[in-house]
Write a structure and sequence with these properties.
about 250 residues; alpha+beta; Jelly Rolls; eight-stranded antiparallel β-sheet; four-stranded antiparallel β-sheet; 6 helices; binds 2-oxoglutaric acid
Length: about 250
């Protein structure tokens, strides 16, 4: 399932790439059921810090029908739970990542963005790599797997192709993109519409956002942030719990 040269070239040009139907129905269903179980508070292993409630629910402005439908995201699941760990090591995903990052790969973090119906909020424009990843160089690629169909109505991600070539930009520039985006569709902006089971892969420096879920349908997406195991880790060593998922680790690196 390695990418073709053309797909790699497209990723290098645009900063993202869609691979349709990468996961089969059984894999998606196993992830959905496990996500439901975890969101229902039934896993004794996943700590409460892994759960983030939608801000407007937390502030009492909105109510969700269930706790699961109040959640914005659940993080670091593959580090505690076998079903998510199997997904993190899925050879079809890792083949794609290897085509983009090389043979030595670690999982840095993973998050299910729950985007519940009516309640799921916007994620403003940002780049991933500067958000506390502490790696040099920022060789980071995210695999975002659609657990439900992701549409413009239920708040799919939106990418600004080519912006990964800017390098790390100032957060005030992210905010400028965000302000303009709230006024209307930005020039070149592309909605990442995906059928459940399809995955998008995005570069750690591409500018992207996701819109609120205005629909009555869920939009869960499982984002795995992979890094090259050859990156230097620039944070405190005790914060480095990245998990080797393919190839080898190197001394002094993440
Ligand atoms: O799923 C979302 O709403 C946001 C995802 C995102 O920003 C990411 O995976 O980097």
């Amino acid at each position: 399932m390695k990418l073709s040269e053309q797909q790699v070239a497209q990723f290098r040009e645009d900063g993202f790439l869609i691979v349709e139907n990468l996961l089969d129905e059984a894999e998606i269903e196993a992830l959905r059921q496990r996500a439901e179980w975890v969101a229902g508070g039934q896993s004794p292993r996943i700590p409460k810090e892994s759960f983030q409630v939608e801000p407007r629910v937390a502030q009492g402005e909105l109510q969700a029908e269930t706790y699961a439908d109040s959640l914005r995201r659940m993080s670091h699941l593959a580090f505690y739970d076998d079903v998510f760990r199997v997904h993190a090591r899925n050879p079809r995903i890792l083949d794609v990542i290897e085509s983009l990052l090389g043979p030595d790969i670690k999982l840095y973090q993973d998050q299910i963005f729950m985007k519940p119906p009516k309640v799921g909020s916007r994620r403003s424009y940002h780049q991933d790599a500067p958000l506390g990843f502490h790696i040099d160089p920022p060789d980071l690629v995210a695999c975002w797997a659609a657990l439900d169909d992701a549409t413009e109505e239920n708040g799919c991600m939106r990418m600004l192709p080519g912006t990964h070539k800017f390098g790390v930009i100032d957060q005030s520039d992210w905010e400028a993109y965000e302000r303009k985006s709230l006024e209307g569709v930005l020039p070149g902006e592309r909605p990442v519409v995906l059928r459940a089971g399809s995955c998008s892969f995005h570069h750690g420096l591409i500018l992207h956002c996701s819109t609120p879920n205005l629909s009555g349908k869920r939009r869960r997406g499982y984002a795995m942030h992979y890094v090259s195991a050859r990156c230097r880790f620039t944070g405190p060593p005790e914060k480095n719990d990245a998990m080797l998922v393919r190839g080898q680790a190197f001394p002094g690196c993440i």
